[in-house]
Amino acid sequence: MTVARTIDPDRIGFDPARLARIDEHFGRYVDDGKLAGWQVVVTRRGEIAHASTYGQRDVEAGTPVEPDTLWRIYSMTKPITSVAAMMLWEEGRFELTDPISRWLPEFADVRVYDKGSLLKPYTVPATEPIRVWHLLTHTAGLTYGFAQTTLVDGLYRAAGYDLWVPPGQDLAAASVGLAKLPLLFQPGTGWNYSVATDVLGRLVEVVSGQSLDRFFGERILRPLGMPDTRWWVEEGDAKRLAALYTPHPATGRLIRADGIGRAALTEPLFRSGGGGLISTAADYHRFTQMLLRGGELDGVRLLSPRTVRFMTRNHLPGGGDLASFEPAGFAETVLDGIGFGLGFAVVQDPVPARVPSSVGEYYWGGLASTAFWVDPVEEVTALLFTQLMPSSTYPLRSQLRQLVYSALVD
């Protein structure tokens, strides 16, 4: 096990012996064959209190997790796309209430599923246009084909929108294709985890006049000093990429998921703003520190503090929590007491979820069980990287919160 820190944790309110419980606990997942390996980083007030690695990034090759291991972060791409959109919003390029059809005309006449079957669905006109804030909050009525919980999900899969988009589609073509499918509900009336952030990425392209990868590189990744965050891994870095695994349905033992995992080794035509990035702990640490510091890091400002605070308030209709919208089959986060902002889940009340955290903490995770959170009250950030899909396999995220907050003793 590799453990590192930049300062004495006692100086910033952490008990080192209690922090060590993180490694003991998650080490058992590896020892029991449930995870191949993992990496954890915990900070407070901008200082790294605890950073550790354990296990293998590639079990079959026998290579260990190292500090510079590359991880598929999947939906942890979404907050970066949301930041990109809000950078343009700060420039006055659009209002959050603007219909997205102003830039994406394919969404001008969307329809909403009402009843019927996969073979013969019946739809009705949308009574409200999809607006920019609907994309940022997942209240647009879009969905994911791989969710497999609603009939509309089935329509997505039938059209080729499952875990990926149909072959040969880039972000522009995917946006056109998705606009032809019916919405799950009228825009702004519900919440459903979805391809909304991919559509948001296309909006960033059209509004900025740049491809999403170029915008990310020029406006976010290079200015923040995130050199290892990329859309695919070239041959020279392939050995640094962690292998992707899934649990055996009967035994729970790890099965290598190269069918999906190998996609990270090829340049994608579709630059997914909702789940396309690969990154390292060091890079994503810089992204979370920028957020914790109110949009600025090392003299580089991406957003104003007030914009970050606005993004991390609850924007759900009626001020409800995710549980009140009953999103079927969703497993990226607990639902009770959790709101949703402009790109992040936001803790409204930690008590209903029975997981320690602060009111106002915001977070997200990815398909392969990666996760992060930013706690502006305690000035804590935490990062978890591993490569096990689906993310609902084990309660890694809630357990990490238990261990981190119980180690905070000042």
UniProtKB/TrEMBL annotation:
<protein>
    <submittedName>
        <fullName>CubicO group peptidase, beta-lactamase class C family</fullName>
    </submittedName>
</protein>
<feature type="domain" description="Beta-lactamase-related">
    <location>
        <begin position="23"/>
        <end position="397"/>
    </location>
</feature>
<dbReference type="InterPro" id="IPR012338">
    <property type="entry name" value="Beta-lactam/transpept-like"/>
</dbReference>
<dbReference type="InterPro" id="IPR001466">
    <property type="entry name" value="Beta-lactam-related"/>
</dbReference>
<dbReference type="InterPro" id="IPR050789">
    <property type="entry name" value="Diverse_Enzym_Activities"/>
</dbReference>
<dbReference type="Pfam" id="PF00144">
    <property type="entry name" value="Beta-lactamase"/>
</dbReference>
